[in-house]
Write a structure and sequence with these properties.
The protein has two domains: 19-84, Roll (SH3 type barrels); 87-159, Nucleic acid-binding proteins (OB fold (Dihydrolipoamide Acetyltransferase, E2P), Beta Barrel), CATH 2.40.50. Helices cover 8% and strands 50% of the residues. It has one helix spanning 122-134, and strands at residues 19-23, 32-35, 38-47, 57-64, 70-76, 80-84, 87-96, 101-105, 111-116, 137-146, 149-159. The strands form three sheets. The protein has a five-stranded antiparallel β-sheet, covered by helices on one side. Strands 2-3-4-5 form a four-stranded antiparallel β-sheet, with no helix packed on it. A hairpin with a 5-residue loop joins strand 4 (57-64) and strand 5. The radius of gyration is 21 Å and the shape is elongated. The relative contact order is 0.16. GO terms for molecular function: ribosome binding; translation elongation factor activity. This is Eukaryotic translation initiation factor 5A.
């Protein structure tokens, strides 16, 4: 390649993926797995005996981490599957918009405005609104992120003097 050729860089990340490959037999209960393109938390794994085709099969029962729907998948234990990279971060609520859009700030002073109040469970959004409207407490939320999606999964009130 000559020095005169130009590279067009589309993204500023390090090329990291939202998922990592993993052998199905290495996934444990309580871990994460991608099923039908959805990031899921594994609830149960049952392993069948080696059959005439030579592979034990792992039957995964898991729940979608964003919708709560139960999903199942069966994968030979020696075959590869994908595991989502799931992160959780703490944010303080600065403002709640009319449509439930949140303005959040982390400990470093960075702001985030692309997260809405959670729709699951149904009562959590109203509980967060009530706690924030109280005014005497600051409200912190935990935002879970995986495969390009983010959602509030928990909240807690802390006194303003903390």
């Amino acid at each position: 390649m000559s020095d005169s050729e130009q590279y067009n860089i589309e993204t500023a990340d390090a090329g990291a993926s939202d998922t990592i490959p993993c052998e199905a037999g290495q996934i444990k209960k309580g871990g994460y797995i991608m099923i039908k393109g959805k990031p899921c938390k594994v609830l149960n794994i049952s392993v069948s005996k080696t059959g005439k085709h030579g592979h034990a099969k792992c039957n995964f029962t898991a729940v979608d981490i964003f919708t709560g729907k139960k999903l199942e998948d069966m994968v030979p234990s020696t075959h590869g599957t994908t595991v989502p990279i799931v992160t959780r971060t703490e944010w303080e609520i600065i403002d709640i918009g009319e449509e439930g859009e949140l303005t959040l700030m982390d400990e470093g002073g960075n702001q985030k405005t692309d997260v809405n109040l959670p729709s699951i469970p149904e009562n959590m959004a109203q509980e967060i609104r009530d706690a924030w409207a109280d005014g005497e407490n600051q409200v912190n939320v935990t935002v879970q992120a995986a495969v390009g999606q983010e959602q509030v999964i928990a909240f807690k009130k802390t006194s303003a003097s903390d």
